[in-house]
Amino acid sequence: MARPRSDEKRSAILAAAVRAIDRHGPGAPTALIAKEAGVANGSLFTYFQTKSALFNALYLELKRDMAAAALAGLPAVADLPEQLRHVWSNWMEWAVRAPQKRQALARLGVCDEVTVTTRAQAQRIMEELAYRMKPPPARGSMREAPLAFVAAVMNSVAETTMDFMLTDPAHGEHYCQAGFEAVWRMLS
Amino acid sequence: MARPRSDEKRSAILAAAVRAIDRHGPGAPTALIAKEAGVANGSLFTYFQTKSALFNALYLELKRDMAAAALAGLPAVADLPEQLRHVWSNWMEWAVRAPQKRQALARLGVCDEVTVTTRAQAQRIMEELAYRMKPPPARGSMREAPLAFVAAVMNSVAETTMDFMLTDPAHGEHYCQAGFEAVWRMLS
Amino acid sequence: MARPRSDEKRSAILAAAVRAIDRHGPGAPTALIAKEAGVANGSLFTYFQTKSALFNALYLELKRDMAAAALAGLPAVADLPEQLRHVWSNWMEWAVRAPQKRQALARLGVCDEVTVTTRAQAQRIMEELAYRMKPPPARGSMREAPLAFVAAVMNSVAETTMDFMLTDPAHGEHYCQAGFEAVWRMLS
Amino acid sequence: MARPRSDEKRSAILAAAVRAIDRHGPGAPTALIAKEAGVANGSLFTYFQTKSALFNALYLELKRDMAAAALAGLPAVADLPEQLRHVWSNWMEWAVRAPQKRQALARLGVCDEVTVTTRAQAQRIMEELAYRMKPPPARGSMREAPLAFVAAVMNSVAETTMDFMLTDPAHGEHYCQAGFEAVWRMLS
DNA sequence: CATGAATGAGCGTTCATTCAT
DNA sequence: GATGAATGAACGCTCATTCAT
Predict the structure, then answer these.
(1) Are residues D64 and D148 in the same domain?
(2) Do B156 and B94 lie in a common domain?
(3) Residues with Cβ < 8 Å from B90, sequence gap 6 or more?
(4) Are D95 and D162 a contacting pair, CB within 8 Å?
């Protein structure tokens, strides 16, 4: 099957899915997503074979988006802690800037429709983040933990931090700081 | 008085719900839950006014169960690190012993049917855990973070650790150890 | 089967049914009726074998109540028009005084659960009213109409009049008058 | 454009609803209506958002149908009584010709799902009938009654007459006559 | 390819009636 | 007899997916 006509429509569907999942969770009807995207009900299935396929694609897209944001503008020359802080800030800022994406991603993360395969791909994306943030292991037993575990822990702390930043924006900076410190200690 | 409402049936429904949510997520049909519990479809609604009510009750029950397991047999006299390690071990063991409960709890935690009120109650339960584990803050900026945030971060690391322990049981002990160390460093 | 214990309970159920049907129509749950009557769910079925049986009994009771009210205090010696006006006034006053009964009766009148047998019995009750109101037929073709038809027409005009009196109480007297006049002309 | 919404199907649903309501009252299951209309269960909801919406639309449609039938072929030049008799005959004939519609309309008329708004629209339709039948008020107190009341009374007598015509068709003509006379006297 | 009507299995919940206590 | 929990068929409505246009 040739690639469907319009990349624009594909993107519109993905963007609409973000908003729909943010508001209604993974139970958001495909009809609603299509409507928000400005395409017909059935057209959604031209671009994604099933609702699951859409969700899997979206999950990866959001992970990539998040990772790219976190790594954006990374100063090549800077001492390690500064780099780490930069990545962390970027990451948290992404969540604050695009709360719908953040929420959609969180909801997709726990939804059965996202397959193990997809999750594995996503993990690989995240491991790069972890890799960049991980200092040379000096001591402690976390150093022997597989990268996947480190990445997952880091990610879960990040998620929690984002939650608090979004729920209580007045102290956003404070949570951001505390979250970073937690991760930093964990890793060092 | 007529046949009294049976605690046994109530428990059977809750237990059935655990299994059903473990397998099918919060979308698990009430009919399935009832069937697994060995009661009629409509009887479920004698014990819980709505599916939501059932889920909220179950969420609290599972949190309480988990907290109780974590705090079980806490040695009164022991130095702090030992106590912490004990709690952490209990906690992880609970997840390994009752993976369905663990999974159901995780799924309920991200489901819209669980209300803010219920979450607030649950948080209070978990804060006790955090309180017991929290060492006297000596330095660092985590010390100024509200207890809720500390509890949430700790919980998220625990969840991640459980995931790895359940997915890769062969290295369960290793993850348990690494997770503990992460939390320990974070807090100290 | 002996008559059930308490006539009081039977009456309480009937009275509760009036209120429930007034508010919810014939779809009112038996459980609600029982609750309003202050008896247990199942007890209702000790006094009335089925919901239908309850409704049929209530229908007759209300018709009787209405007819009795209409004929109450009928002056033995008075010219015909005066008697008729008296009956009509009584009738309308009943509706105004007991709007729930009136509404319940109206709702039961169009409900399938009330059987033809019951309706026939009710008609006999109403025919007495018609008989008392019917002047000696002098002319016109209504004179040849069967009493049942006359009674039914009279009843339908009365129902309509009641509706307007209850909906627009400010002009109640006016509608009462106009309704009476309509019936009077019809019959004379 | 995709398959357009079919007026044929819409009509089939309305017609099926007439039959279903005639037989089972407003409690008729939507599934039954859909089946009788030869469409899928869910298709009914493509044409009418809810069961209530269907009932409201049907109520208006039937009222319009009835009014149109009553006014059909009204001789332009004829003395007043003759015109009135013509309308009345048409009206009664409609009931005899389409007893299911008549019955469905009667049942819908007392059903809570038909809203006040719909009833108001229906009243406007019926007032035209009343207007055409109302002779120039010469005397009596009905002349001061609002048109709505006159229309309602006329309608209720018509309904009663229809009932007798349908229940006892052998004397249909007789009831038709007597009903007309009743209305005529009432109004004149 | 785009459209949106058509499909029908599936869901949460209700309720008349029964029956264990 | 009184109670109210138990039952399970039934209902209105949704929604992923298909397919006629």
Answers:
(1) yes
(2) yes
(3) B69, B70, B71, B72, B73
(4) yes
CB interface of D with C, residues 20-59, below 8 Å = 24-25, 27
User: Counting Cβ atoms within 10 Å, is residue C180 exposed (0-12), middle (13-18) or buried (19+)?
Assistant: buried
State pTM to two decimals: 0.91
Q: If you search the block for the tokens 């109403």, which residue do you land on?
A: C126
Task: Give residue A125's domain range.
Answer: 60-187
Q: Are residues D116 and D43 in the same domain?
A: no
| Type of residue at A56 | N
Q: Would you state the structure tokens that stand for residue C114, as one six-digit string?
A: 């009330």
* Nearest residue (CA) to C1' of F1: C5
Residue D53 lies in a domain: no
Q: What is the CATH number of the domain that holds C125?
A: 1.10.357.10
Question: To the nearest 10°, the Cα dihedral for A109, A111, A112, A115?
Answer: -30
Q: Per the structure block, which two tokens stand in for A86?
A: 């930069």
Q: Which residue is closest, via its CA, to the C1' of E15?
A: C29
Same domain, residue pair A8 and A69: no
- Residue B114 near residue B56, CB atoms below 8 Å: yes
Residues C84 and C6 in one domain: no
C76 C-beta neighbours (distance < 10 Å), count: 5
- Are both A93 and A35 inside the same structural domain? no
User: Could you say which residues 145-164 of protein chain D have a Cβ atom less than 7 A away from any atom in strand F?
Assistant: none
Among C149, C164, C188, beta carbon nearest to D178:
C149
Q: How close is the nearest chain C Cα to the Cα of D114, in Å?
A: 13
Measured in angstroms, the CA of D54 and the nearest CA of chain C are apart by 19
pLDDT tens per residue, range C98-116: 999 999 999 999 999 999 9
The residue type found at A54 is: L
Q: Is B26 exposed, middle or buried (0-12, 13-18, 19+ CB in 10 A)?
A: buried
Number of H helices, E strands in chain B: 9, 0
Residue C121 in contact with residue C60, Cβ under 8 Å? Answer: yes
Residue C137: band (very low, low, confident or very high) from pLDDT cuts 50, 70, 90: low
D98 alpha carbon, distance to own chain's centre:
10
* Res B136 pLDDT > 80: no
Lowest pLDDT segment from A37-51, A125-139, A154-168, C145-159: A125-139
Partner residue facing D110 (CB), from C107, C140, C178: C107
Contacts of C4 (CB under 8 A, 6+ apart): C10, C46, C47
Structure tokens at B102: 């663990």
Pair (B11, B93) in one structural domain: no
Q: Where residue C20 sits, what CATH number does that domain have?
A: 1.10.10.60
Contact criterion met (CB < 8 Å) for D177 and C141: yes
Q: Which residue reads 């890799």 in tokens?
A: A131
CA distances to A18, B84, B92 from B119, in Å = 25, 25, 22
**Token match 């869910």: residue?**
D42
